[in-house]
Amino acid sequence: MSPFHFDSLVWHWPIAIYLFLAGISAGAICFAVLLKHFKLGKNAYKSSFVQAACLLAPLAVFGGLGILVIDLTKPFDFWKILVFYNPTSIMSVGVAVLMIYQVALFSWLACVFKEPISNWCDHRWTVIDKVLNILARYESTITGLLVMLALSLGAYTGFLLSALTTYPMLNNPVLPILFLVSGISSGAAGTLLGGLLLKGNPDGKEVHFIHKIEIPLILFELVLLFTFFIGLIISGGQSQVAAFTAIGEGFWGWIFWAGIIVIGLTLPLAFNLFMTVSAKRKLSYVAITASCSLLGVLLLRNFILYTGQMTVA
Fold first, then answer.
1. pLDDT (0 to 100) of residue 75
2. In the record, what terms sit under GO molecular function (predicted)?
3. Counting CB atoms within 10 angstroms of each CB, which of 53, 92, 111, 301 has the fewest?
């Protein structure tokens, strides 16, 4: 059986990229919110890492939606999904969450960058000033709504695959939590890499803060992966077959053990622990750790998507 072409395959790699980008967006904006409220306050917009997260969140969503539209057999009919909602369709519910998420996202970005936007406009457009003042007045509500929508979006990437009920590995209640946690982890990695590209300080308080959260996130992700596969193996039948097909010998077995467990989780955990006890964080360590995390999450999305469709109930 080819790892990328087999009879039961329905969804290909563009779906994995879409799920990856949606997770990054949700994770990045969560870290932007955390950095603003726990470390930086009103000056958050000056931080390279917050700027990176605020750029990454909308760009990742647009990129993911673009890939999804191109992947449709009738891309010019995509607008129908945005207009005609079916509350019983997980795809339709996901698009609704994405739409509301983008409204909350841009409203929050306007609150964070209120001062530079006002300075740039130089009070030439009173309408913009009025809108910014209204949004700033409700910033707390917008922030709460945005975090809830971001977490929903992160979990939705797992629910979307869980809806494929004929595949025992995908129809798994652990999958939405696993994708949510790995999405937040990829958001942290994307924020760190983007912040470094924008010349942020690799030993800055933002990096220390993100790394403190990353360590328990990676440990929790390992526990979730263990629970995911142990649950399949204990269930027996086709669930057990699906688990051993995925993590056994062959191409996807190597991707799981070498790519996801070693490169994507173990190395970032080891680097994070090393940087925690060392006196100073270096750019190379932070960049390598973040790159390994991003690669691991990308491989995880593809691994789950492809191996999950290899075994039918």
1. 67
2. nitrite reductase (cytochrome, ammonia-forming) activity
3. 92
Q: What is the Cα–Cα distance from 168 to 175, expressed in whole angstroms?
A: 11
Which of 188, 180, 175 shows the shortest CA–CA distance to 151? 180
Q: Identify whether the C-beta of residue 117 lies closer than 8 Å to the C-beta of residue 132.
A: yes
Residue 157: predicted pLDDT: 85
Q: Long-range contacts made by residues 202-206, C-beta under 8 angstroms, separation at least 24?
A: 202/281, 202/282, 202/283, 202/285, 202/286, 202/287, 203/280, 203/281, 203/282, 204/47, 204/49, 205/39, 206/35, 206/39, 206/40, 206/47, 206/49, 206/50
The pLDDT of residue 266: 96
Structure tokens at 5: 């072409």
How far is Cα 244 from Cα 9, in angstroms, rounded to an integer?
18
**The two structure tokens encoding residue 136:** 């700033």
Amino acid at 131: V
